Amino acid sequence: MQSSPMSIPPGGNHVVSYLDVVVDDLLGTGAHPDLARGLRPWWQDSLESLGKSMVGLELPWTATVAGVHVIFSAEPGQPAANEYQQLLASAIALWTRWLS
Q1: Measured between alpha carbons, how far is 72 from 20 in angstroms, rounded to an integer?
Q2: How far apart are CA 85 and CA 17, in angstroms?
Q3: Which of 62, 74, 89, 98 is 20 to 30 A (C-alpha) from 50?
Q4: How far is Cα 66 from Cα 57, in angstroms, rounded to an integer?
């Protein structure tokens, strides 16, 4: 999310949680206006709701919503719903930056 790429050496990096969002390139560029925040990905609301509906389920979470495939996991003891929402917010911010 920074203007210059971050360089992290491979291997030995500790991951607390991860989120994979896989969507077809053409579908991934679709957006709808949000008067308060500008463009939002059309899939944002669905994926935010998905995180809330998966609370309490065993990790990893895998789901497909409106053609968007999601894989999420976190280490035991991490608040999964919070981790998911934070990673999703970062993915949306990256998408917004990429689209502009």
Answers
A1: 6
A2: 11
A3: 98
A4: 21
The domain spans of the chain are 17-99
Query: Residue 27 has which token pair?
Result: 């579908």
Closest CA relative to residue 45, chosen from 59, 60, 30: 30
Residue matched to tokens 């609370």: 55
SS (H, E, C) 18-74: EEEEECCHHHHCCEEEECCCEEEECCHHHHHHHHHHCCCCCCCEEEEECCEEEEEEE
